[in-house]
Design a protein that fits this description.
The complex is a heterotrimer of chains A (about 260), B (about 260) and C (about 300).
Chain A (H helix, E strand, L loop, with lengths): L12 H4 L21 E3 L2 E6 L2 E7 L2 E3 L2 E4 L5 E4 L3 E8 H18 L10 H17 L6 E8 L5 E7 L4 E3 L2 E3 L2 H13 L11 H18 L6 E8 L2 E9 L6 H4 L10
Antiparallel strand pairs in A: 1-4, 1-7, 2-3, 2-11, 3-12, 4-5, 6-7, 7-8, 8-9, 9-10, 12-13
Helix pairs in contact in A: 4-5
Chain B lengths: L1 H4 L4 H5 L25 E6 L4 E6 L2 E3 L2 E4 L5 E4 L11 E7 L1 H22 L5 H14 L7 E8 L5 E6 L5 E3 L2 E5 L2 H11 L26 H18 L6 E8 L2 E8 L4
Antiparallel strand pairs in B: 1-2, 1-10, 2-11, 3-4, 5-6, 6-7, 7-8, 8-9, 11-12
Helix pairs in contact in B: 3-4, 5-6
Chain C lengths: L1 H10 L18 H11 L4 E6 L2 E9 L13 E4 L3 E7 L1 H22 L5 H14 L11 E9 L29 E7 L5 E3 L2 E4 L3 H10 L9 H16 L7 E9 L9 E3 L2 H32 L1
Helix pairs in contact in C: 3-4, 5-6, 6-7
Classes of the chains: A alpha+beta (about 260), B alpha+beta (about 260), C alpha+beta (about 300).
């Protein structure tokens, strides 16, 4: 027994060696997300005459493990805006709840939710930027689709750093490498929007998803696709990639120990 | 016991386990809060105008994010279109920081007008921008900013900044990815560096050609030439050239296509 | 009866009515009773629990010709599926709604789904009751009617990403029935009951009499008919203060497959006008009947 109550009930240093306080202390750096855990891959989007189409596959991966295969990565906001999420799924769930609570608050007024996709994008970009500035990022890359204040089709991107950009067609993750070139070929950026039909846009997205399924190892042939027009959102969440052909795989040679 | 009087910690003295907490090993953040979105900007002043220009490409690594992301903004306008602004700002580097910086400066200049009933002078705005940047000295806005306007005498004013707020007034300045390509060109074509008056002497006795403010149309053409050349040699520059010309009459905005390769 | 009246009269001025949280010797909290008086002066509010939804209606006395018609709403939305209308002090009602919204939001924070109407009524009842306990506050000068529709459909958890297992643990129960309409009335004491039809405010007696005629207990009244009845009841209740002009505000919450898809919304303008027209016609009809009777009596004489 000694006269230092702090020592009571603690292992004695002279018996057990110096106590490692680093396990108890609350000071020091606070742990934040430094890498994503369960992730979704590419999001692809195209503007067309009178609206925007958005698509993702339904996979959530845990590293290289295909962990969840019916994940809904397209989320609606109000009745004329959508967000497609790539990156961390738990951060997506957080943002979805955030947007849900915002939509509820908007609907307190009798006018309903007046925020359009452009407003939503600005807000999300600021949330991302704020969190990255706190070194506690929301690990996502999102596409926001809908209409702007003038009623024109709107498609824009925001990522975990708060970086934003807009273009007639966009894709996140692997899609930025594989889908964007396809979309740029199909609809060159100087084509007037009036010349891009809804059918062509949807067909192009399906084509992109197929190519992504061929070449992106963390992708799935089950996908969701949303078409946003003035009439509202047409969201399909249980689609299957059609017309796959793996004939090209026959010609791929020269990997690993393979010699012929 | 005597050591209690001194500055030795109690834990060390008595050998029990309540010594001062040792700092936990510092965890390494693998999150890097910056990225480079490429692109270049350029500002040149004349006797009664200032031009601020930038390409409209946004990149991430080898990807082109978009071909139309402006880098030059009106500051202190009356509405979201920027109508009524008398100051221009260009930002190049990390675009998210650039946007945040633009929005902060814009609101400050607008607040100044609401509070004082008059527009902020470029000189004051230039100092304010420096302060905004320096406030984040230890987590900087990763941007190279250029501010342009007309000074109290109506002459073109141009201020260039480093990311932490060091600034100076200059005749011309190129910033961003292709600044090392454009700046020497500007030295030669705007400040007539390495240009001499023919037949004015032999060797070092050659008289340098004296720099004087250039007319607006000459400068406009210089800007276009600077960018078309930069596009040829730098992969992060291209797609479009956005040019804003501020004169006594107001702000004129012009867009020229650039090569998209 | 006489002694009770005597007690109430003599209690005033004894000091027991001056402070909240203080009982009078005969077991009453006068501050709460005075709050009820404030409610009794407010515009009539009614709620009807129908088989496929809930209707809320309120009589708004026009206190100034300078007020913009249709503006200054008195029925508020809480979360998506609940509406609240109150009679009494309007600012107290606003604060009450604000608390309801906070409760609904915090429920979502914990349970990742919409708050059941009963749970909301319970929490609000507790909140109002707390304002009868302390001398530093006064009770709410409102009686509020809380109407909601608890979804009968399988609802995704907030932020849910997958469909969940088809069967087994955590799986779906085929044909499970849940949800439905909810209607509660919370009084200044914090007392709340669930109702088939609820009425408060100045014209509550007349409104209650009308509500009782509707046979709501059998659960046959449709939402569409409920809208018409609610409008008519407000018009009937207004008969006693005919000299004042009023405006009818009405909202509804239908089932998920009904017109509002489980959301609390304003009754559409056309429907409201139709209901008001029918209400006026019904009143005129009553008047004629009375006039006929009157004439008959005269003739007999």
């Amino acid at each position: 027994m000694n006269h230092f109550p702090e020592a009571w009930g603690r292992p004695r240093n002279d018996v057990y060696g110096a106590y490692d306080h680093s396990y108890l202390q609350t000071l020091g750096p606070k742990a934040h997300t430094s890498s994503p855990a369960v992730t979704g891959t590419s999001v692809v989007g195209v503007k067309f005459n009178g609206g925007v189409a958005l698509a993702t596959d339904n996979l959530a991966s845990y590293g290289s493990l295909a962990r969840f295969s019916d994940v809904k990565r397209l989320r609606s906001f109000g009745d004329k805006a959508m967000v497609g999420f790539g990156g961390d799924v738990s951060d997506m769930q957080y943002l979805d709840r955030l947007l849900e609570s915002m939509d509820i608050k908007e609907n307190y007024s009798t006018h309903g939710n007046m925020l359009n996709a452009k407003n939503l994008h600005t807000y999300l970009a600021k949330v991302f930027y704020k969190r990255r500035s706190e070194f506690n990022p929301l690990w996502n890359h999102v596409l926001v689709a809908g209409f702007d204040g003038e009623g024109e089709p709107f498609l824009s991107s925001a990522d975990l750093l708060g970086t934003t950009f807009s273009a007639p067609h966009l894709a996140t993750g692997f899609g930025a490498h594989l889908a964007v070139p396809i979309l740029r070929r199909k609809f060159p950026e100087d084509t007037p929007l009036e010349e891009v039909s809804q059918e062509d846009a949807v067909a192009a997205l399906k084509e992109c998803l197929k190519v992504l399924f061929y070449r992106d190892a963390r992708s799935l042939d089950k996908y969701s696709i949303a078409v946003i027009t003035k009439d509202g959102i047409d969201l399909k969440e249980d689609e299957q990639i059609q017309g796959q052909s793996w004939a090209f795989a026959e010609r791929i040679k020269g990997y690993g120990a393979q010699t012929v | 016991m005597t050591s209690f009087m001194g500055h030795q910690s109690r834990g060390e003295t008595i050998g029990y386990s309540f010594s001062e907490p040792t700092a936990a090993p510092v965890k390494q953040h693998s999150f890097y809060p910056y990225t480079d979105n490429g692109g270049s900007t350029l500002g040149i002043t004349g006797s009664d105008f200032a031009i601020l220009a930038g390409d409209t490409r946004s990149t991430s690594g080898y990807n082109i994010n978009s071909r139309m992301v402006p880098k030059v903004f009106r500051i202190g306008g009356d509405d979201e279109t920027g109508e009524g602004a008398q100051i221009l700002l260009s930002v190049v580097g990390f675009a998210a920081d650039g946007n945040a910086l633009k929005e902060r400066l814009d609101t400050m200049v607008r607040m100044y007008k609401y509070q004082h009933g008059k527009s902020m002078s470029v000189g004051a705005c230039a100092q304010r921008l420096s302060t905004i940047l320096y406030e984040k000295r230890f987590f900087p806005y990763y941007v190279h900013a250029i501010l342009a306007g007309l000074d109290e005498e109506g002459k073109g004013a141009l201020y260039s900044y480093d990311p932490v707020g060091s600034y100076e007034r200059e005749q011309c300045r190129a910033a961003g990815a292709a600044s090392s390509l454009i700046m020497p060109f500007l030295d030669n074509q705007v400040n007539f560096k390495n240009q001499y008056i023919p037949g004015s002497g032999e060797g070092h006795a050659l008289e340098p050609k004296k720099a004087e403010p250039l007319p607006k149309n000459t400068v406009k053409q210089l800007v276009r030439d600077a960018f078309t050349s930069a596009v040829e040699r730098h992969i992060e520059v291209g797609d479009g050239l956005q040019m804003m010309i501020i004169t006594r009459e107001g702000i004129e905005e012009v867009y020229h296509p650039l090569k998209k390769d | 009866m006489v002694s009770e009246l005597h007690a109430s009269l003599t209690s005033i001025g004894t000091g027991y009515d001056l402070s909240n949280s203080v009982f009078s010797p005969d077991g009453r909290n006068f501050q709460v009773e005075y709050a009820v008086k404030a409610v009794e002066n407010g515009g009539t509010a009614v709620g009807i629990r129908c088989k496929d939804g809930v209707v809320l209606a309120v009589e708004k006395i026009i206190t100034s010709k300078l007020l913009k018609p249709g503006a200054n709403k008195r029925i508020a939305t809480v979360d998506r599926h609940v509406g609240i209308v109150s009679a009494g002090l309007v600012p107290d009602g606003r604060h009450f709604v604000s608390r309801a919204r906070d409760e609904a939001s915090s429920w979502r924070g914990v349970y990742k789904g919409p708050i059941p109407t009963l749970a909301l009524a319970n929490r609000l009842g507790g909140y109002v009751q707390a304002y009868t306990l302390y001398s530093s506050v006064r009770p709410f000068g409102v009686t509020a009617i809380v109407g909601g529709w608890d979804t009968e459909a399988e609802l995704a958890v907030d932020g849910q990403v997958g469909s969940g297992p088809e069967s087994g643990s955590g799986g779906k129960v085929p044909g499970a029935k849940a949800g439905g309409p909810g209607l509660y009335m919370i009084e200044p004491s914090g007392l709340y009951w669930g109702y088939y039809g609820a009425a408060t405010g100045k014209g509550r007696q007349a409104a209650k009499a009308e509500l009782e005629k509707l046979d709501l207990t059998s659960g046959n009244l449709s939402l569409a008919d409920g809208v018409k009845e609610a409008a008519r009841i407000i018009y009937v209740a207004h008969e006693d203060s005919k000299d004042k002009e009023f405006e009818l505000e009405m909202t509804w919450i239908s089932s998920v497959d009904g017109p509002t898809k489980g959301r609390h919304e304003e009754v559409p303008k056309e429907l409201l006008e139709e209901a008001e027209k029918a209400a006026r016609r019904a009143l005129e009809g009553d008047d004629e009947e009375e006039e006929d009777k009157g004439q008959g009596e005269q003739m007999e004489e």
